């Protein structure tokens, strides 16, 4: 009985810690959040980040057309209307690159040009 209670308390505390962390950090360390490919168009100027660089909150789409919101941190400003391919784990972006419109999956291309 005591082992079960201790295990449950550990789970509760771990869940509370995960909820208190910023979303990008909790997504980064959460083993249940899957890595996925996200395509987005830069539609704003980046906000200055604390440690230098710029932050972008981007609404993008997976290759199947599902919507996803991510936070991208870069060293310099990105061009407005730039198309970006990202490897994301929830809101956390692990890697990114600027791509041409021809490189977008059809469903992501359609969704980005609608919005």
Automatic annotation (TrEMBL):
**A UniProt-annotated Pfam family:** DUF1093
Membrane-spanning ranges: none
NCBIfam families, sorted? yxeA_fam
This protein's name = YxeA family protein
């Amino acid at each position: 009985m005591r082992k079960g209670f201790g295990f449950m308390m550990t789970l509760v505390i771990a869940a509370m810690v995960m909820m208190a962390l910023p979303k990008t950090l909790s997504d980064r360390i959460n083993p249940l959040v899957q890595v996925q490919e996200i395509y987005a168009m830069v539609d704003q100027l980046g906000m200055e980040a604390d440690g230098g660089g710029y932050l972008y909150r981007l609404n993008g789409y997976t290759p199947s057309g599902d919507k996803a919101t991510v936070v991208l941190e870069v060293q310099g400003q990105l061009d407005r209307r730039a198309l970006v391919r990202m490897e994301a784990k929830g809101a956390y972006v692990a890697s990114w690159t600027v791509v041409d419109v021809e490189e977008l999956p059809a469903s992501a291309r359609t969704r980005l040009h609608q919005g």
